[in-house]
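PT: before anyone asks, these are the final sequences, not the draft ones from last week. 618 residues across everything. Please model them as a single complex and drop the result in this thread when it's through.
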Amino acid sequence: MAEKKKLGIFKLTSCAGCQMRLLYYQHRELEALTAYDITYFKMGKRDNLENIKVDVALIEGCVTNSEQIDELKRIRENSTILATLGGCATRSSLWGLKNNKPEKEIEEKAYKDLSTIHSIKAIPVNDVVKVDYLLPGCPVGEDEMTEFLQSALVGRRPFIKPHSVCVECKMKGNLCILVAKKEPCMGPVTAAGCGALCPTNGRPCYNCRGPMIAANAPALAKEFKKNGLSDEEIYLKFTAFSGLSKVYEEVTDRA
Amino acid sequence: MPKIMDEKELQSLLGLLIKEYRFIGPVRKDLETGFGEIKSLKELVKDYTNTIEPPKYLFLTPQETLFSYEMKKEEITITKTEEQGHAALGDRPSLWSEGIAVEPLQGKAIQQVIFGVRPCDVHGIRMMDKVFKEDFDDTYYQSKRNKTIIFSVTCTSVSDYCFCQSWGTGPSLKDGFDLLLTDLGDRYLIETGSKEGNEIIGKMRLRDATPMELKQKAAVIKATEAKFTRKLNIKDIQQIMISQPEHPTWKDKADRCLSCGNCTSVCPTCYCFDVQEKGDYNPSNMERYRLWDSCQLLEYSQVALGGNFRRERISRLKQFMMHKLSFSYPQYGDFHCVGCGRCIKWCPTSIDLTEVAKDLRGE
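LR: through. Structure below.
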């Protein structure tokens, strides 16, 4: 038996839900966790090895203080393949909400004594180091995580879907709630990979996976407006999980 | 010879089909009607104009395993899907196995009946048959298609989106079906178009339709035809669609286009698919599968090193509309549009193919 590939799962600023996703993993967690030699996974095991070379590194969470930048650079140097695990690492997700306000204003809301707080803007991982694959989602999509973990085992390029959630929604034969019910579904501008989880259950997509490649944000915003959403509601829809993403710039730029 | 049946006889025929075949028919899907597997007659919806999805998903499955293989050093062993009975996908506990559309056929492809296929969709199936038979024999498509009985129903209602009349692909049907039902009000006229259809009807004792009743059918069709509001002028459409690639209507539509791919997913004649590999936690097990693709997606026309032939949204939109109304004719001898109007209805920003054709014609 050949030596197993080493996998490290690291956490920056996040809720740890994506790591939980790996533990609570529809009957497949044992397969996934035994296929690799896991060197670092604080949520999952007691003995963790820091500063050793790994074949695959998964990063959960975004950078919100400068020490994390050093940590991230160190992980990058020690890993062959580096991928983000979930929305926070991919595009700073919910943490990105604070990015359009002064840092001190945010700190004052959260802490009484600011003397030891050194927070910075929420920076996604791929703005700091080179990332090989982005696995977005809040939490990370299960099928996509499976695809990545299986492909990294054999050194194959994973199939990460760059298109819209609509494609997956239609493949499931769902009724389009954006058209039929005028619900504010973000599906047409959101990256696929979740299997259209929310629309399948009758709820509008809320963009937890962030923008798809080449999304047409202004056209959807216009449609939302026609359906009676206010400018503020539209702004929140486009910024909630994508921060101030360039793809949605035309809708979210308020300057 | 067309036969006549009453409500009770129709019920017993459908009941028989449900018992003997995998029965696909129109079922309620929230606010709309869509195709679904039917186990009891009560689930069947009668008052619908057309379904959300075209019946193509039954033959060109949204996602299906082509074959699986095992890699052991230099050696590769291939397992064909026929042997493993299309079950590989369903075995995986994943989100995919929950959707109706991706449900694999258990065992070998089984005999199925699709009831309530509208005439436009029957034409759609005819065009798809040509694509998956004439250019190359696609066994995955054919194995399911060959075991399917098409039970079509003549249209009596018309939606705002329907324009099949312009193509002559509806609201009535001359061939392409196994069974065709026409509602005459208090009776049904049933026609057969194949050996399989004859066998099914042959088991029942039905009387022949009188010339009067055939006239009645013509009257029903005429009444339906009078209801159409949407029209597409198909005169010289092949040239007109490609005559003005710089016309402002293209930019106007492309600004609204979301590139979401809904139009191609709901089109009964869109046949593009992508082929991908899938692994397993056991590194030697691999699987090749195919899944729907769409010309509206950026990655569709991407080649090695990131080159892309249709990087602009406008060129992707042109590809869809021009292929439907122009390129498909020299390619297959058919315009790959049947006038079902789904691409108009399910477009989140209501981009209208017929409107573009009108603008280009300068009407």
